[in-house]
Amino acid sequence: xxxxxxxLLDRWVGSPLSxxxxxxxxxxxxxxxxxxxxxxxxxFVKLVEQGATVIAAPALRRAVEMVxxxxxxxxxxxxxxxxxxxxxxxxKANVITxxxxxxxxxxxxxxxxxxxxxxxxxxxxxxxxxxxxFSGALTYLSGATRRIGFHSFAGEAAYRGDLMTHxxxxxxxxxxxxxxxxxxxxxxxxxxxxxxxxxDPNWPDETPAFVPDxxxxxxxxxxxCQVLRRDSIPSLILLxxxxxxxxxxxxxxxxRYVELAKRLLQKYPEVCIAFxxxxxxxxxxxxxxATVGSDRCVSMGGRTTLRQLLVLYGLSQIMVTNDSGxxxxxxxxxxxxxxxxxxxxxxxxxxxxxxxxIIYAGIACSPCVNAFNQRISTCHNNVCMQRITxxxxxxxxxxxxxxxxxxxxxxxxxxxxxxISPLRA
Length: 425
Known about the structure:
425 residues
């Protein structure tokens, strides 16, 4: 199903379903005592956004510390399973997938998932989808006696019933990694005092690391050398134009990527450029590389598996991308990443990797998509991305590249490069 269809279903089917389940929840609670023992088996519901799953890694580790790795589960849409397996925090056997290719497949797999979760005797379920109605319903149907998630107390977000036992208020000033962690920490807090949560959210920054298998590096090196028609990999800069982005406001204009590539090739004769992309973006990536018109600029779009793409990141110097999954995948590798933000807030979703370099125009209407509006904006003109100039990105990439060519100093915090106004925390 397309993202628009999923949102419509979540709204028009999810709302009445949430109301019905809320009625049953309040009736059944009259005959059911609350849990008295510490949780033993934890479920995370994180259906979409693989990049966000990378951000959530510290929260997943915290759950493992609490109940042990074999007792942590995750429910995801099938196409988002990859990054869960790469992180390796949750056993593969404990990842429960739901197909979203069609309404019928989704319904069938949801029934199977609920049956599996009840067999596993899940006693704590945490909804990482914030205000999604479907994820809230799945959290409730898991059978968990502790259900942690965000609640719309004053109509500040979409209605999704009253299905959580531990109801929290969404704090838009926290980074997403802190938000995910607070949901886990709420397990140990008295639910009758919520939404008050008396915990310090300033946990240490932790960025997971991707470690390729020894055989994967020469395999990907051979693919890159074949595409570049070289015997060895030169200094490689990746450009992720992200033509298939699910949020149409996020991409940076393709002609600007072309201009950026031409200027980098002219300034650095030893550099090669590769456009990346998923298989469905391969055609666009090939056209962009052809438009640059240099034998040092190629397309890697659709030429690697997702896992091989992470290996490619480790063989490259820098990637330029908009705010998207690849920006977060790359944070797990030694590569520097220049990320362009517009409709979303880098203070919330920006990578905290020390190799992250964020460019953000910070105009008055930005950010316009957030958890409260289901990440839907009425804007049709992404001026927030258009205000990010090729000059600004080019200067940033040059500084990062030249720093990498020198002996690098001690790694510091993630750097933020502003196009118009400073990043507002």
